[in-house]
């Protein structure tokens, strides 16, 4: 009799494990894997086209330069053309900057 109870408990455990694994798979597959694409207006982050306390967009991890010699680029957070010499409140120094 005891063996039968162990088998039923083991079967229930395996069934629950399979249900949890299936649920996790659904969450992973349907989860949002891409960042939001909406950007904020320059005014929302007090963007200015000159440095602030020695910090500038060209040093920020969110800034992407348009070309190697370009003074203009784009930001992952702020919409529009961004000056390499500019600054905003979203500034976070890049590990490469």
Provide an overview of this structure:
The protein has 97 residues and is an alpha+beta fold. The protein folds into 2 domains: 1-33; 35-97, High-Potential Iron-Sulfur Protein, Chain A (Irregular). It has one helix spanning 2-30, and strands spanning 63-65, 72-75, 82-83. The longest helix is centred in the first third of the chain and has 29 residues, at 2-30. A 3-stranded antiparallel β-sheet has the order 1-2-3, with no helix packed on it. The chain is rod-shaped. The protein is built from 1 helix and 3 strands. It starts with a helix and ends in a 14-residue tail after the last strand. 30% of the residues lie in helices and 9% in strands.
Uncertain segments: none
Give the count of helical stretches: 1
Radius of gyration: 26 Å
CATH architecture of the largest domain: Irregular
Average pLDDT, all residues: 84
Shape: rod-shaped
Order of helices and strands: HEEE
Query: What is the CATH topology classification name of the largest domain?
Result: High-Potential Iron-Sulfur Protein, Chain A
Number of domains: 2
Structural class: alpha+beta
Strand portion: 5-15%
Just give the CATH class of the largest domain. Answer: Few Secondary Structures
Largest sheet: 3 strands, antiparallel
End-to-end C-alpha gap: 70 Å
How many strands in all? 3
- Helical fraction: 25-40%
Biggest sheet strand line-up:
1-2-3
CATH superfamily descriptor of the largest domain: High potential iron-sulphur protein
